[in-house]
Structures
1.
Amino acid sequence: MAGSVLGERFKISTWGESHGAGVGVVVDGCPAGLPLKEEDIQFFLDKRKPGETKYATPRREEDKVTILSGVFEGKTTGTPISMLVENTSQKSKDYSEIAGYYRPGHADYTFDAKYGFRDYRGGGRSSGRETIGRVAAGAVAMKILEQLGIRITAYTKQIGNLVCREEKMQPGNIEKSPLRMPDLERSAEAEEYLSNKMKEHDSAGGVIECIITGMPAGIGEPVFGKLDALLAGNMVSIGAVKGVEIGSGFAAAEKSGSENNDEFYMTPAGEIHKRTNSAGGILGGISDGDDIVIRAAFKPTPSIFRPQKTVNKKGEEIEVSIKGRHDPVIMPRAVVVVEAMAAVTVVDLLFVGMSSRIDRIKEFYMD
Amino acid sequence: MAGSVLGERFKISTWGESHGAGVGVVVDGCPAGLPLKEEDIQFFLDKRKPGETKYATPRREEDKVTILSGVFEGKTTGTPISMLVENTSQKSKDYSEIAGYYRPGHADYTFDAKYGFRDYRGGGRSSGRETIGRVAAGAVAMKILEQLGIRITAYTKQIGNLVCREEKMQPGNIEKSPLRMPDLERSAEAEEYLSNKMKEHDSAGGVIECIITGMPAGIGEPVFGKLDALLAGNMVSIGAVKGVEIGSGFAAAEKSGSENNDEFYMTPAGEIHKRTNSAGGILGGISDGDDIVIRAAFKPTPSIFRPQKTVNKKGEEIEVSIKGRHDPVIMPRAVVVVEAMAAVTVVDLLFVGMSSRIDRIKEFYMD
Amino acid sequence: MAGSVLGERFKISTWGESHGAGVGVVVDGCPAGLPLKEEDIQFFLDKRKPGETKYATPRREEDKVTILSGVFEGKTTGTPISMLVENTSQKSKDYSEIAGYYRPGHADYTFDAKYGFRDYRGGGRSSGRETIGRVAAGAVAMKILEQLGIRITAYTKQIGNLVCREEKMQPGNIEKSPLRMPDLERSAEAEEYLSNKMKEHDSAGGVIECIITGMPAGIGEPVFGKLDALLAGNMVSIGAVKGVEIGSGFAAAEKSGSENNDEFYMTPAGEIHKRTNSAGGILGGISDGDDIVIRAAFKPTPSIFRPQKTVNKKGEEIEVSIKGRHDPVIMPRAVVVVEAMAAVTVVDLLFVGMSSRIDRIKEFYMD
Amino acid sequence: MAGSVLGERFKISTWGESHGAGVGVVVDGCPAGLPLKEEDIQFFLDKRKPGETKYATPRREEDKVTILSGVFEGKTTGTPISMLVENTSQKSKDYSEIAGYYRPGHADYTFDAKYGFRDYRGGGRSSGRETIGRVAAGAVAMKILEQLGIRITAYTKQIGNLVCREEKMQPGNIEKSPLRMPDLERSAEAEEYLSNKMKEHDSAGGVIECIITGMPAGIGEPVFGKLDALLAGNMVSIGAVKGVEIGSGFAAAEKSGSENNDEFYMTPAGEIHKRTNSAGGILGGISDGDDIVIRAAFKPTPSIFRPQKTVNKKGEEIEVSIKGRHDPVIMPRAVVVVEAMAAVTVVDLLFVGMSSRIDRIKEFYMD
């Protein structure tokens, strides 16, 4: 479970540093016969790119993906899919200065503590570019989910203390907002808030919400392989995420059982549904057929231009002003990373869940 | 990663239902030479027992542990440690009624959806008794951490909206409070709040906070094996946990980078420390030598005595009143479960981390 | 992959030493709905028992299994199945002498080298009793395979240089032979050979062959998850196995391609078959629909009564004569262990293989 | 354990087909601080290349490796090492014919049975080119072992029935023989044997032996993580391997215990050694400090030019003559693949074994 490999049946191995030759991922366990082309992956990678807004780094990154294996005549073959994105826009000289000191809020110090030294160019493996491998793998997972009628949508729910209102959020608004906030009024307010932060050479945090629709009931394994446990762990594995909640989340702490329990009822079509969704679509770690609802809290970008105190490798206390090109807010670009982590988690558990019942196994192998 | 097996180098396999013959765990990967006796395990299991307070189920459970393997002449041998707790107090007749319907907030419906049927006696595998295996494994992990000077302490931070105040919390208070709340005034208020909930045949949720002290810097693996990612996932794997946060957590969303970044400084002893701990002791997924701070939100106990609407297996809408013996609040007993999950996570990553540097590997094998 | 846990989707955790409280196994990932009772397990454990012949240890072991979890109303629930066999006949005083020295051919020295000390009573974890957990898990796997029309049969193919002849082997003979040799003439000769070895206070080795029939084509994963690779590794994990071969095995080294290749042809029923089976039913690591054929070479029992030279823990060279109750030949009792390892390997790969094709996944989840 | 990912602490993910864009591997868990450059990898890849002899395919493959990540300023950083070898010499038109039928002895049929279709160009993922990823990962493992004084040497022990004689084998001869046979007389005889096979449009099999020297005692995990079990499984994962043996191997079957047991004695330096090495350096699955000895049997190359009967996808019986460029014997090029698999197995278990003893863990973390 440790390191850069994730998953049991849909297994992804990501690799790459911000200023090496490139970044990428190998996906092992993708089923054969899935239509897949580079455009499918590129679509998601493009959502991760800085874009044209002023709330993102002015770096221009091409991030063109190449599929190196596992696809033949437009379909996956069942063997590992290796995907590569070359690093083209990296200017190593930008970073030479930070080699000698520890940026507050970054992993510089802990990488040195762990490994004895580090690739100091732009964060190396702890850079946001690491998420390219996740997004590419997530794009493959998304193609699988599409075949099964499962849909994953994430968006910026909150920036600073500006929270989208349930009744004002429209899925169609997400791409209309430069911040991917589906409540456009809040989005406008958040733009102003961000502009102020930028003037103050500071940055902002927020919350991303992710909804999974079309989930069949019964997905997730008991105890340690719970759907919510794996979703939560995988969300927190995204750099900058400091918290995660499912359904009613931290608000559940203040509720009573009678408020938080979701009553079951029968739909006219004879299906079992819940009247409310405090559970966030998961009971006992297993999907209940309702929408999965998960939120991740992102800390403000630690790279800020205002002066900060820190120490250098010689053990001297110094004051630094970080230079370079940094996003004042990470959520708009992280939305697709959240979707990717949700997708790989769900696909893995869908595959794992195929052997839960002997009757279905018999059906599978003996028909 | 799925199912009832957790960990890479310190691997635990838990088993057992609330009303079967017993519950237990096999720990594979415990190092040889660790002093271990049944009393060491029992100490933690006793913290999980209902106890004498009125805020816990009146069930009397003995929960006596037996070590079946892996210990010889008072020390672990390096081979699997199998631990067994027999179920003695279970009265199956209590539960026969719930076989036919789905309790709101419970996993009855999702287990049926997944497996086609379920062991309906007291929740079966989704019962709180499942945590006995976790606590027993956690006790072994705690013994290991003790040898390394690492200490884990959890407590009830919040019940309902009553939150312990930083300045009033004393570690010595934890066991003085029947709710394991280290701010004794808040504890008294929470007792009153709970008494009211119990009168209303209702239940309460809350938050447990867990502090890990004495952690060396450098523990945790990049990307998916981040210390915070694994802690978060393993916390959410505890039934009833709906959210988790590390360090500043969800509050980070509302902060600016200059507020949330922790400045480094040099201690008089020449060590690198942080002035604040928004990071919760983890930067880039790797421990920074500071205290690890993690919080888990628990939903209110779903078993409440007041009438609730639900459906039965025949697809009829019914009203039910759950009977039996249930905790109106789960946190006081869950504190030790949180500690256990923290302990197994940290031990696993400590072991995994031993091969991070070639110089230390050489030292290990060639001296 | 290391230690006492094996498998990905059908995961077994074995535990126990020869002279501790007992031995056992936890099976995680057994599908729900499988009829299972203790008698199903006991049937296989009884095949492992010393029996009444003079070619086995005169120890009387009861080896009664108890199922502690995972079965409800006669069917598996999908949750972990914990099985326990108590150690009843162990006499620790028999073994006190060997605590101080290293028996040739045993793991005494290597356990001390690894762990610093060992449970010296009867071999501890390296004792043959460790295989009880394997056989119990194998019995569950066998029940699953039975549902799928897959059958596993192993037998003693060779003792010393006495090899069963293909044309004389009858499956019905296996249980007629005290050595489980299906060529009864060779069995009789082997009995004489063994009687001589016993008179000489010596022991004998041999070969077990295992045939898996009814295998569907397409099972096994490319590269490292090959069916033959996992079968081979798992066979060699049985103590005393020094070699393994699939199909034509080592004989393939002396053949030419035209001799070793198996030609495909069409059966009258329109199925693709092979005229010969050098492949042992596996091509490119994937089952081809033919019988799987695998052989494991067992070294002679290292516990022999004649004097041997060795060293003790003080570093003195000494001469020892091993006492106690030992099998002069291990194969007759190991036959069921080979079957068990084959069964758990095949079941795991059958489950893993369910997600190989997107069309079949769609069928599974959308019908 | 299934699929294209192998290892627990030193984890490799290989990818690529013979006629895709390239082949490669990601190594996760390589310790930081190891000097590594492309030449180190290339040295081993060059041993795998067809070379100049007439006993190998006349295909010219460049097989130039590029390190894409995980190395900074000449040293590994502890993060994943991604290595890429582009496919340059592949001529897809050579293979178009075989798309429609199943070559005897190849995985064509089983891939179709598993996945519904296959990348038919040159074997796709089941091609020998798949081993490039293994060799590249093995090269990294070799660099680690070099630091620890562990050395792995493999060579062709046997071709047809021509077996190198113990007393005539000289390590210095390996690279002098075009067949990598260290008994040069046997090598010359094997050349003649092979010439005849080639004239007959046929192919030959053989045996590779691998010796690991400098192994510390105590490496390997009990039960399923045995050193010999993992070595055996990983050897059989190499395409064309049909059998494997450790130490006395299949010959042990014909020996008595007194012949096969290795007596311990004290060296003048006060070390515990064995007088003989039937054990092949492994007792109870754990290294005993002696040389590890393992042999793998290779089937003759299935691609032969003489006519063979088979069936096509339409279900017609046909006769085919395989064209193209094929090795008449695989062992000389497979020697480095065997070394690579041995290296990755040993490194993984060395890392896993670091947490076997609490005293050594304390020393590691508290000094």
2.
Amino acid sequence: MCAIVGVFDVKHASKIAYYALFAMQHRGQEATGISASDGKKIRTIKDNGLVTEVFNEEKLSFLHGDMAIGHNRYSTAGSDSVRDAQPVAASYKLGDISIVHNGNLINKHEVRSKLVEQGAIFQSSMDTENIIHLIARSQQGKLKDRIIEALHVIKGAYCLLIQSRSKMFAIRDRYGVRPLSIGKMKEGGYIVASETCALDLVDAEFVRDVRPGEMVIFQHGKEEFESIQLFEPDPHICAFEFIYFARPDSVIEGKNVYAARKKMGMKLAELAPVEADFVIPVPDSGVSAALGYAQASGIPFEMAIVRNHYVGRTFIEPTQAVRDLKVKLKLSPIHKILEGKKIVVIDDSIVRGTTSRQIVKLLKRAGAAEVHMRIAAPTIEHPCLYGIDTPSYKELISANKTVEEVREYIEADSLAFLSIEALKESIGNDMNYSLVSFDGNYFIK
Amino acid sequence: MCAIVGVFDVKHASKIAYYALFAMQHRGQEATGISASDGKKIRTIKDNGLVTEVFNEEKLSFLHGDMAIGHNRYSTAGSDSVRDAQPVAASYKLGDISIVHNGNLINKHEVRSKLVEQGAIFQSSMDTENIIHLIARSQQGKLKDRIIEALHVIKGAYCLLIQSRSKMFAIRDRYGVRPLSIGKMKEGGYIVASETCALDLVDAEFVRDVRPGEMVIFQHGKEEFESIQLFEPDPHICAFEFIYFARPDSVIEGKNVYAARKKMGMKLAELAPVEADFVIPVPDSGVSAALGYAQASGIPFEMAIVRNHYVGRTFIEPTQAVRDLKVKLKLSPIHKILEGKKIVVIDDSIVRGTTSRQIVKLLKRAGAAEVHMRIAAPTIEHPCLYGIDTPSYKELISANKTVEEVREYIEADSLAFLSIEALKESIGNDMNYSLVSFDGNYFIK
Amino acid sequence: MCAIVGVFDVKHASKIAYYALFAMQHRGQEATGISASDGKKIRTIKDNGLVTEVFNEEKLSFLHGDMAIGHNRYSTAGSDSVRDAQPVAASYKLGDISIVHNGNLINKHEVRSKLVEQGAIFQSSMDTENIIHLIARSQQGKLKDRIIEALHVIKGAYCLLIQSRSKMFAIRDRYGVRPLSIGKMKEGGYIVASETCALDLVDAEFVRDVRPGEMVIFQHGKEEFESIQLFEPDPHICAFEFIYFARPDSVIEGKNVYAARKKMGMKLAELAPVEADFVIPVPDSGVSAALGYAQASGIPFEMAIVRNHYVGRTFIEPTQAVRDLKVKLKLSPIHKILEGKKIVVIDDSIVRGTTSRQIVKLLKRAGAAEVHMRIAAPTIEHPCLYGIDTPSYKELISANKTVEEVREYIEADSLAFLSIEALKESIGNDMNYSLVSFDGNYFIK
Amino acid sequence: MCAIVGVFDVKHASKIAYYALFAMQHRGQEATGISASDGKKIRTIKDNGLVTEVFNEEKLSFLHGDMAIGHNRYSTAGSDSVRDAQPVAASYKLGDISIVHNGNLINKHEVRSKLVEQGAIFQSSMDTENIIHLIARSQQGKLKDRIIEALHVIKGAYCLLIQSRSKMFAIRDRYGVRPLSIGKMKEGGYIVASETCALDLVDAEFVRDVRPGEMVIFQHGKEEFESIQLFEPDPHICAFEFIYFARPDSVIEGKNVYAARKKMGMKLAELAPVEADFVIPVPDSGVSAALGYAQASGIPFEMAIVRNHYVGRTFIEPTQAVRDLKVKLKLSPIHKILEGKKIVVIDDSIVRGTTSRQIVKLLKRAGAAEVHMRIAAPTIEHPCLYGIDTPSYKELISANKTVEEVREYIEADSLAFLSIEALKESIGNDMNYSLVSFDGNYFIK
């Protein structure tokens, strides 16, 4: 899961991109990069680390120009090197180009094989490099047409921002799996970002979302951006954006994330009621749903787990039970509140089950008499292939165990999940969602 | 405001001190240090930065031994150098000694003048150095008696941990202004820390608080620690520990901080009710009190401000309205929730008024129809001289303006503070508190 | 000017490459990189900085395997980014490949244009990327044949090391402009390096030089390396390797660099004698020639200029006469020796004239009565296009001024250069040299 | 062995101190520090590392003011911590004070014991701290008189620079063991430094040396500095400054170091002639003496060992024969020159014998037929207690072995040292030298 941002026709474009990436940093903490164009040349800086670690005033000054695109990547297995940071910048027949990508191409191996067969070289393992090759190899005369040709080759979930020396293209796949919003800067110019919270931070006014299947083109001298509907829209907005990834203050397709999460909690209270003294969230991800659960059930809400936000790069001796310690360093239960009480604890999801197991243990050790876990999402039974880094079937606990078996494993007194139906109702029945992790309906063919 | 920790008679003492300091890091982010003794020599490492920035596996290995003391300092004006980091370690007539200190000595200038008159040199601006000089200059034969002599010279609020090569002393002033708790490690040995959350993280069992006016002595070969009541206790526990500094999961003098904060919110609801659609906290410091306010008033609780925890060392261009941006980078309101609504926003205190003013502005810009600010503490009208880094009278807004004038300045629709009486009731009327910031009663003479 | 190294069939290949690069570090100080293969995968680490700055034990351990290639780059204008560091590693149809290159391709723009026309993308500005593209696009079935095809497209001066997962290729252009030597490791396996001083450091035995126009192939299971003479040899060994770049202890085509430099000094003494009290070198580059001049002329040799080797990254305020200070920080004359004396000062070359001018000034200020500058190379009148980073005609002082005018500019009492004929005799008349900088004979067509 | 510098009454004093320390960096590479006064306050920055590593433009700007003192320390055993870096700055009765010290106090333990007995605390292991304590404890009214009182307590070899907020004191012990020179800055103001090479770099004009037993006082408003002869001079200039420590371009007591070293080589040629093909130096320390040996003997001089100046912090695997590798990384013999030849190799001293042994081995492996080692100093048979970090008797090879036994150990074909008499003649018989390392005459009582 990544954050991408594009900024067009503004002063100090790379600084605005920096702040926008900063707002979306919860989406990615491993690597970050920005490329900027001053009309003559595209310059790029990217490295491992947080936004604030990779950039400083001097580096942003180097990236001068009035347009920029940026990327912030979440840790993904096997890509421990800076060579897999984005943007991917290159020069090709028409000049400099730079691309950032959020999503996942399902036919990347076929595309790569074909390209390699034709003599292409790959300097990273990112599927983003596929796209740049397809654009470079197109016989079309204009970049726009080359991009369109490339988009007809790739399949998958993608939000793309492509920058030439003078134009910027924003593209969303026909399913609209990943969100992408357009904002207008106060002093003129545009910003396009994965999340509306980025627009808010830089004081941009929300214009509209890029539509599923749409390509938006920003060019100098034109006040308005151009829109081309490339593909028939078939919206499947990723439900996980609402469940976990997006920031509560963001708005996706007109729906506020915090409000949606609260409704998930409310539905959960209806579907899986329990008698308890308190409702508590696993902070920070379970807070909104827990508030909803509390409001719907009438059970008091308490913040009985304190989160330590300084964890960062704490070294931990590998000889100890490391995973245990990691949760302990991050989450501390309030003994005095929990002692002898029956607790409903709300979290956003269960993936492998190990974290939930430790949380139940922490709460019981802190004196909780009963721990009832309620998950504000359905059981994750399938890997997402559309941009979320879920593990394989083997590691997904709900792909291998019944709810009762999971409950036993995590040692909770009871356990319940939201139904898929209730999830959809919570976000809004007026839209279609990508629910692959829950129902295994891999709709991208 | 600092965090101190001492660890005695355990394996890898410096590692345990590291984890304990990590748990208490909200108390200090500027500089940190640990000194450890292996019975022969005291070694010290200290530097500017977070606990996780200053230490790594290698440095903690260098600090080997079975006892250690550590310190984590909050940013204080004018002390931008590593020379003001603690512990202060020195060698003197009886050998190596190391000290950490949380608090403030009110007669430090007199003591320093006298020492300087006698030929002492000071290599820092910390009052901790006073204490080490007094100990070194004492004519007493034993360290214990030297410390006692020194303690009869200094006046103020202090929690001290003093380490020789083989003993550790924990001392709390007779007023008990700053907290200090003793825990027992599972595999033997002791930990003494500013906050019980440190004990929890390292799995230590709470034994008891160090008593006001008490000196506790840990020495090898004695299973039990020795206790000497040096001064008549006259308890004045700092109310600000409950209001702001301590972590919600900590317990001070038997009182849980989270519970106390919730009660402050409840009292506030009674004293300063208002009709509103939502109660929202300023995260993270106002969360507990806001929950109390919501529960007592029956007004729904919402987390309508999102906090960005990555802020850290974000560089901010000084040409902009910097203070504004700082608050914006940290706090993001959820527009969809706030639009057109009447809001009660709960914060823990108002010092200069600038932050509150920006928060009201953020909320109004996000669409809030009315913003009623409620502060879960009384008006701060006096500088604390007992260890909290409050500004001078000139900068304290409530020392210079009436509540109505403050309301006008921060542009809230209404504003109310907790009464001193209600504050005391919230924490518990069975104890005496240090309330100097509120009532100007400077009880240490 | 770069250093390259390849190591084949040895334990800890990347460590040996590291030490070899370290020995050749005078050739490059700006960026360094190593890629290693363990038979399954090629891993690469490269960054700006000295060999010792880029690598540590941990990084070399990451680069495990029994073969490695490495590169160390000299500062070149405009390439201030890590993206122009080598090796260039990529995956293509036949798997992983990595290349390092020392030299310069004269038809790189044509080749790049053609490749770009065919849809290739370039992620750096290095001509090395051309070669990898040509290999990837070849229709040949085997890597060896693809490389050969590529070599028939490129023109210029090059030494290449190419690594697949299991083989290593060492290639030298038909002119043999840049040196490349093969050594045998004591415990088996091979090393190929730009300079024999690298072989000495890692205790490898010199086997022979790679021949002009030859491709040498190292593969597992074959004790002996394979040799293919790809092009008719037409040797033009770069004279500048002898004059300046190579280390005095290195041996190129059987000729020791130190001995050659001494002979240049001797010839210079014959051609341009002068009455003087002392011969002094500009350290370190002029030392060998100065010794030769002294021995031939009978004038005493003195080390009257002290070189400060710590200069490195000294920051220098840009407001001052920076170039002046830079020379001053590096070179300090010994006043007591120089006062009132007639001095012959020997340097290896004059490029822009600015450094020579400052050296004369330093010596005069230190009291020298007369400063006679003797340059152990002919006048540089043409840019080298074969791998040495010489400036354009406009900046080359000898392309624009007569020797007398240069003398005037540098304010020396007399000035003389070596003749081209004498240079050739000094190194040895049995070989043909690349002398483009001196005679403008651009022999590569 | 350290470098100290003081700068008085100049603009950007800390920058000038920085450049002066940079010039003297061969004297110390482990830690460096500067303190500066702007008339109101003394600020200090010090850390482990080279001059260029510890300071940058920003840090020097922080150290603003018109006077500064600085220190650069050589690696000494057991002091691996920043707490032993100088200057030592403190505040005492009369205000701020800062001290740097080059030398060694022989009664430091007695002084420290007495101070500690009186209640002093020590925050480092440096004897410099003794001096600051003595000054602080003096009953004298003025700093000058306090310093004088302190100087009557301490015994040993010392050059001191002491800075108050408005004055600077330069002091040299009555033996003048360590050098200290005064220079006048071109635009007014003074510099005092351990070596005249520092004066040259910052364009200061040499005024004179501080005299043995003299205190020089610089104060604002007085064009001329004040001089007080505190002690009867009894000059014993350290011979090792001429042999090894000082830079060849420096001048000590009117004697140029390079010229002295050449004479040592000449004397050595007279005393210990040998038939040989070449004279070669161990670079860089043996170069000057080797030139002298060559000139006196008529044997040709060759630079047959190349020194790699990039060594720095090369990590070296501890499993290998580390010491061997260290010499190899630094020194590379030129095989072609050495093969089959009889060599005289000149070095400046033999301490433990291990390095000499490796050099002989390197030369023999490179093909030298005979290796005759000549040392341009007498045998080191006693530890220097006056500021040079020589090892104990046990480790000094010449304290335990005859010259013949040393020769056997280092495996040279012959070995000879300079006589003490010849050493004195080489530097000049008009002065008295500290020769303790050679004759064990510990003249400071």
